[in-house]
Design goal:
By secondary structure, this protein is mostly helical. The chain has ten helices and three strands; from the N terminus they run ααβαββααααααα. The protein has one domain.
């Protein structure tokens, strides 16, 4: 279990050590930082369009994807009519219909992270074998996406699972118990629960207390799912690399 949670940190350090051990580490860091910025601007619209694909492929409908203009919204909206230029976030799927299916909902949330499993984490494993700052920049953006999306997409997945179990336990179907805690922004949700829980359909001290308990459980599921995604990507990465990654030893200074 300890190794399961340490693995992403150990892998990143193993990639950074060869980059930082050169005579001029700042020169080596330059290409990596440029790579991170370039990949980020390409990855954001791809990430959002994969949310759309996840919804459509599993039988849902999409009517509105808000995307910031800096990520090519003005160009992409000419190709995809559901894209709207302008968003409070880098991008957000605001108009979609899951037909009441949690499977469609989860597929919509998760599909972008298939890139983490298939490309991002394997690239990180490849970068552990030598000094590859440009490739490591790609691995950071795509491979570590589950972790910087824990307050968003991964919390939403955790809340879908948690509220589904709560629905089964309370026998609330076809209505979803505590549906108001399903959110792709944990910080906005917590603000609403503090200031106006009634707007989320949660009223009364008992219901509010249960809602907070479910949020905490959903956060725990959120973290577990993020590390599990990285773990599965790591299994694929080791398969591709096909050999044990040698431990990097800092060369002695002369």
């Amino acid at each position: 279990m300890k190794s399961f949670f340490r693995r992403p940190f150990d892998d990143v350090i193993a990639c950074l050590m060869p980059i930082m051990s050169v005579r001029s580490p700042f020169k080596a860091m330059g290409p990596m930082m440029i790579s991170i910025v370039v990949v980020w601007f390409l990855y954001v619209p791809v990430h959002e369009l994969l949310h759309v694909a996840g919804c459509l492929m599993t039988g849902g409908e999409v009517t509105r994807l808000e995307l910031s203009a800096r990520y090519g919204a003005n160009f992409l909206k000419e190709i995809f009519p559901f894209i709207v230029s302008g968003s409070n976030y880098a991008g957000q799927l605001t108009g979609f219909d899951t037909k009441g299916s949690d499977f469609i909902y989860l597929a919509t949330d998760f599909l972008p992270f298939a890139l983490s499993v298939l490309i991002g984490v394997p690239v990180i494993h490849f970068c552990m074998r030598g000094r590859r700052p440009i490739l490591f920049g790609l691995g950071v953006v795509i491979g570590l996406a589950p972790f910087y999306n824990m307050p968003g997409d991964y919390y939403e997945m955790g809340s879908i699972m948690t509220t589904r179990v709560a629905t089964w336990v309370t026998g609330s179907a076809p209505a979803i118990a505590f549906e108001g805690i399903r959110s792709d922004d944990i910080f906005s949700l917590m603000s609403d629960l503090f200031n106006d829980p009634g707007a989320k359909g949660i009223e009364g001290a008992g219901a509010i207390a249960i809602a907070w308990i479910l949020v905490v459980v959903a956060l725990a599921v959120d973290v577990l799912l993020a590390f599990l995604t990285y773990f599965v990507g790591g299994l694929l990465g080791r398969l591709i690399v096909r050999s044990e990654i040698p431990k990097f030893v800092m060369p002695a200074r002369r």
